[in-house]
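wait is this the right file?? whatever heres the structure
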């Protein structure tokens, strides 16, 4: 309902759809049906609005509407034991500000107070933040269901804001995605390890991320193989396609991809990361970069687990990626 509107449209992905006002004063529109999660931007008289009539998540660097259409039920709320999702705050010397991380603990965490749990450090993509994996990604429901079905071992998940901000020399606040490495390794990991009963050795830590978060996972994981035993690269990249490009807010040269030096010893890489998981949607606009990374990994003889899903660069692929990756990690525990 928009009584004073002269026009109503909505964006799904990069396409805009026209609405028509019916006899009851309701503006209606249709778009090609696809299951799962979709960000939706409503525009009234050409102005973007945040509608209270749709669920609200976080995308495109701000609160954003989305809709859910029927899909597989692996991420739905079911009658199983549920874990907890909590907000935690730590002071960062990297950003000189208070930062928030979201921590999921499985149901067993509250019941078995003597147990030390494995931990997955899980990153979102560009324009999202630390809440995205629980709002759009449904990570807590996915893991609750997998654990209840005994398809995954219980583990903790820590989600940080990968859109790390700093003030540059021009006094402008910008995002420097590469600062996550320092903040995560030096600050977030020690913080959560001091507060939660989680593993403090390589075999009990893993890292994964989607899109920009997948590149952050590659950079951090390859630089610190002593910290993580498994890496998940969801819809993403081992080669740095962000630094020095139009996607980067920092003025700097293109990346020299120094982190890829770890590929020089394929056998050692396989020992360091028994699980190296990569995934992509078959309609992903970044497909060419995924294939380019394929060739690098093939030339270097790097062992990997590779999954292709039906879909684009969206949460419907990332949820499936997490579902499958979660069933592989920490089995030795």
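ok assuming it is, sequence goes like this
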């Amino acid at each position: 309902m928009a009584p004073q509107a002269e026009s109503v449209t909505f964006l799904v992905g990069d396409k805009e759809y026209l609405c028509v006002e019916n006899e009851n004063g309701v503006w209606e529109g249709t778009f090609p049906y696809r299951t799962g999660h979709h960000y939706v931007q409503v525009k009234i008289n050409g102005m973007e609005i945040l509608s209270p009539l749709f669920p609200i998540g976080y995308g495109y660097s701000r609160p954003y509407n989305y809709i859910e259409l029927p899909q597989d039920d692996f991420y739905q709320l079911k009658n199983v034991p549920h874990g907890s999702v909590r907000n935690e705050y730590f002071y960062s010397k990297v950003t000189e500000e208070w930062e928030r991380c979201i921590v999921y603990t499985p149901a067993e965490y509250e019941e078995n107070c003597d147990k030390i749990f494995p931990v997955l450090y899980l990153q979102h993509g560009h324009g999202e933040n630390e809440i995205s994996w629980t709002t759009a990604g449904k990570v807590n429901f996915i893991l609750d269901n997998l654990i209840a079905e005994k398809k995954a071992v219980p583990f903790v998940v820590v989600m940080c804001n990968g859109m790390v901000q700093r003030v540059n020399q021009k006094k402008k606040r910008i995002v420097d995605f590469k600062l996550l490495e320092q903040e995560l390794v030096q600050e977030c990991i020690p913080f959560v390890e001091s507060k939660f009963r989680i593993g403090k050795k390589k075999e009990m830590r893993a890292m994964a991320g989607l899109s920009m978060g997948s590149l952050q996972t590659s950079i951090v994981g390859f630089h610190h193989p002593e910290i993580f035993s498994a890496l998940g690269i969801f819809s993403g990249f081992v080669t740095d396609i962000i630094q020095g490009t139009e996607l980067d807010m920092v003025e700097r040269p293109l990346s020299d991809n120094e982190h890829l030096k770890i590929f020089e010893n394929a056998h050692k890489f396989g020992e360091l990361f028994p699980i190296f998981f990569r995934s992509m949607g078959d309609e992903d606009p970044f497909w060419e970069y995924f294939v380019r990374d394929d060739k690098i990994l093939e030339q270097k003889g790097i062992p990997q687990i590779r999954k292709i899903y039906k879909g684009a660069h969206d949460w419907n692929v990332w949820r499936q990626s997490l579902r499958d990756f979660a069933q592989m990690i920490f089995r030795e525990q």
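The chain has a mean pLDDT of 95. so i think its the right one actually
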